Amino acid sequence: MNEEEFKESMELLDAINSDSEDYTDLGWLLDTTEKFCQDKAIYNAVVESISILDNPKTDKDKGYIPDLLSGALSVSFDPHVGHDYLDDSDDRFDFYHRVEERIPFDLDYFNRITKGGLPQKTLNICLAGTGVGKSLFMCHVAASCLSQNQNVLYITLEMAEEKIAERIDANLLDI
């Protein structure tokens, strides 16, 4: 680098340091970086897909390829990470004062305890000792939710699926 190039470089660096807004286009930088990451994710997914197809001894089967490609296509930058305490104060206030839609129990005491029932889109876990009626209670609650046209996912490691279905049917049919 000769003397003239050095001076021009130093002037450019001084100008960038003094007024960074003129030389920095964050929108372009984010868009270009996001596109680069997407392209690399797609490239990596295609290469891995080819290795799955070419290697019959791989532990992954061909059904995994669509998952690889859909994962690669879904790469994007989410600018809404975290929150700004002052800028988001109105949204937080609305969230704190929003009335949640609840699924009521058909048991008055449980409605009183839970302030009207279970909030929608929540994971509810029933824990109790052995032989005290967890499955009986959960089947009753599942049947109650089903009768209110709600979707229910019942997960248990204690009992067979058919027995749970039989108990829920008995609750729904009032047997």
From TrEMBL:
This protein's name: KaiC-like domain-containing protein
Lineage: unclassified sequences, metagenomes, ecological metagenomes
Species per Swiss-Prot/TrEMBL record: marine metagenome
InterPro entries: KaiC-like_dom, P-loop_NTPase
First and last residue of the signal peptide: none
Gene3D superfamilies: P-loop containing nucleotide triphosphate hydrolases (3.40.50.300)
Domain KaiC-like: residue ranges: 108-169
Pfam families listed in its UniProt record: ATPase
Cited SUPFAM superfamilies: P-loop containing nucleoside triphosphate hydrolases (SSF52540)
